[in-house]
Design a protein that fits this description.
Length: 691
């Protein structure tokens, strides 16, 4: 609606209305987590305001840009923008903008520990809001005062401000302030040991969040909307564990991560493009490819000849082009009724998950809070939980260190961080006896833990070190709900589609694909070099039991739907099979193997891990497309060692299940030969069903 009215304003030359419309659209986009679009609209509104000398337009968009910096935790830059806005608003006697600038400046000063100054700013905002009877501004000012008092450990004062603000927010039906105030109340009530009241406050916040989220029709907005709200779920899980209510805590841990997975499973048919839409899509993709080529040409030059200005220009234009394309895909999906979800899948109960776990199998689910790691362990006859005190930044640094050292295949420096992570992630639950008589583990990671090669984690047993893969058969899951909502087993795999395109320049990919095809002598399709086209893959993929892609994967952390795998181009397709295209496939394969680099990485590798794990990696795309299991890699593989690993894996697969085949292969490579270093074998992970 905003986009439509903006077109009308622009055609009619109504500049001030256009400025207000851009600001409203930007605020909506910001609330939905679409920060790039919001910033673009705020900056356009700011430029237009200055061009037509519209003081209030300048002020409100300075505040909006400050909000963006605040979300990025760049508090110094945010404060500078708020102060500029405050000066302009005061000069023009704009009471509403003055109060808004005071409120945002107060919250920023709170973040930097300047609590007295923050309280002064918030009180000034409250006085203005009350004198002008601006009820929503009054709510925001009371919320700011509540947060400042909570930070200063003045808890009763904080609760008083929150109660006053909540009353106004409820009467005004303002969901944004409602969930924020309830979250703040919950945190404050916990501090004064009123745990049951805190629990009710957190649950009220979650109810509000999920009510709004359920009304969002587009996947890109559901993920973005939850982005700054996941801490509510984490706080609720922490408190429920503190109250020894383990089953409820696990349920909310699943709600944190499983919601978008289930929404994608329950969606309808992919959208059908009209001729105009096909042409628009082709133009957008062509623009992206052109900018990528220009960027690659610049990076291929000798360093003295590279131009920083060109880097920045191409980078900015490429990000904008990718964003436009992702928005096109979202708009296409929301306009096609057939694409709307056809079934609403609820988050399963703890008992339903336990029923999917045979004896000897455990599920370990992690939730990472700011100061604690929560670990759930489910078996067919028990549910347990443990909390490990560790800061999220510390854990992330240890994961990064392990991965960095793991890639140095000529040293053993990786062993110390591997042992350290074992002590954090596995030892607390093993020592409690919760893994007794267990030899198969489903792992449900969270945040940076998605990138841990669990198979290589080390512990001491007698006089020697043992890796986790020595004791357990492993598989990763996006959510425990994956075990509950899955198709029935499809029997023995009898056919394979193997592709090895030439454009990846992987020397041993052709040999690898030929080798794995030999394990299916009765029915296989081998597409090598120029034959391995994207069109051929899409045409044939639904006809085979196993799909093997020996090619490069690429990862786009800013636009995850544009991550993909490299195939050969042809007259119909550009050779880049992206996540959104994989989501539209209908596969009947029992296994998809992505023998490529970085294919298991989801959105947000380290720097921007999605809090609710909502955004999509390549592995999840193939799961959504119908494959119950995906074999993928956590880092760039060595294609020579991949030949050996894949040959062993498919050889084992003739007599055992997928997870066991991978475990036996990794144990064999680990024990002898040229590829004993975990760089060669521990990066491969099975995501999805073990069988």
């Amino acid at each position: 609606e905003y986009l439509e009215v903006l077109r009308v304003y622009e055609q009619a030359g109504l500049k001030q209305s256009q400025i207000e419309g851009l600001g409203d659209l930007g605020n909506l986009e910001l609330r939905l987590g679409d920060v790039a679009s919001a910033e673009k609209d705020f900056r356009q509104a700011l430029e237009l305001s200055r061009a037509v000398n519209h003081p209030r337009g300048v002020t409100v968009n300075l505040i909006a840009l400050g909000d963006l910096e605040w979300r990025r935790k760049r508090f110094k830059e945010a404060a500078a923008l708020y102060r500029k806005a405050l000066a302009r608003a005061t000069e023009s006697n704009d009471k509403g903008s003055t109060a808004s600038a005071h409120i945002q400046l107060a919250l920023t000063l709170r973040e930097t520990g300047q609590l007295e100054d923050a309280a002064s700013e918030a009180r000034q905002a409250l006085d203005i809001a009350r004198s002008t009877q601006a009820r929503l501004l009054e709510t925001e000012a009371l919320y700011a005062l509540g947060e400042i008092a909570r930070t200063a450990a003045r808890y009763e004062e904080s609760l008083t401000h929150f109660a006053s603000g909540r009353e106004i927010a409820s009467s005004a039906a303002n969901p944004e302030m409602s969930w924020r105030i309830d979250f703040g109340r919950g945190q404050t009530l916990e501090k004064v040991n009123r745990d049951e009241e805190a629990l009710a406050a957190y649950q009220a916040a979650v109810t509000t969040i999920e009510l709004v989220r359920s009304e969002l029709s587009e996947e890109r907005f559901r993920a973005g909307y939850i982005d700054d709200k996941y801490q509510v779920y984490v706080a609720l899980v922490e408190l429920l564990l503190k109250l020894k209510r383990v089953n409820e805590a696990f349920s909310f841990a699943e709600r944190l991560r499983a919601r978008s997975y289930l929404e994608l499973l329950g969606r309808g048919q992919p959208p059908i493009r009209s001729e105009v839409q096909r042409q628009t899509e082709a133009t957008l993709r062509s623009r992206i490819r052109q900018l990528e080529r220009q960027f690659e040409e610049e990076t291929s030059k000798p360093r003295p000849e590279q131009k920083r200005q060109a880097f920045e220009l191409f980078s900015q234009e490429l990000a904008a082009a990718e964003h436009d394309y992702q928005n096109f895909l979202g708009d296409l999906q929301s306009s096609d009724r057939a694409y709307a979800g056809v079934r609403a899948l609820r988050v399963p109960s703890t008992i339903e998950v336990q029923q999917q776990l045979p004896r000897g199998t455990a599920l370990i689910e992690y939730v990472l809070a700011e100061d604690n790691l929560m670990i759930f362990v489910l078996t067919s006859d028990g549910v347990h939980a443990n909390t490990v005190p560790i800061r999220s930044e510390t854990l992330q640094a240890r994961v990064e260190l392990l991965r960095d050292l793991m890639l140095r295949e000529n040293t053993n420096e990786w062993q110390l961080p591997a042992a350290s992570l074992y002590k954090i992630l596995i030892e607390p639950i093993a020592a409690a006896g919760w893994l007794r008589n267990v030899d198969r583990l489903y792992l449900v990671p969270h945040a940076s833990l998605h990138y841990v090669p669990f198979a290589a984690l080390l512990h001491h047993s007698g006089n020697r070190s043992k890796a986790l893969i020595d004791d357990y058969t492993l598989a990763y899951l996006p959510a425990a709900a994956t075990l509950v909502y899955h198709d029935e087993p499809r029997g023995t795999a009898r056919s394979i589609l193997a592709l090895a395109p030439a454009n990846t320049r992987l020397v041993f990919a052709r040999q690898e694909s030929q080798d794995v095809s030999n394990f299916f002598p009765q029915e296989h399709k081998l597409l090598i070099g120029s034959q391995a086209t994207e069109s051929s893959f899409k045409r044939l993929a639904g006809q085979y039991d196993v799909i093997h892609l020996a090619t490069h994967g690429y990862f786009n952390k800013f636009n995850p739907l544009l991550s993909g795998v490299m195939l050969e181009p042809d007259a119909q397709e550009d050779g880049r099979m992206e996540v959104h295209e994989i989501l539209e496939l209908k596969l009947n394969a029992n296994l998809v193997t992505l023998s490529a680099c970085d294919t298991a990485l989801g959105s947000g590798y380290f720097a921007e891990v999605p809090p609710g794990d909502d955004l999509i990696g390549l592995t999840r795309a193939f799961l959504f497309a119908g494959a119950p299991s995906v074999l993928a890699s956590l880092w760039e593989v060595n294609d020579r060692s991949a030949v050996t690993l894949m040959r062993n894996f498919y050889g084992q697969l003739r007599t055992v299940d997928k997870a066991t085949a991978l475990a036996l292969t990794q144990r064999e490579l680990k024990s002898h030969g040229a590829h004993t270093h975990p760089y060669y074998w521990s990066g491969f992970v099975l995501v999805g069903q073990m069988n």
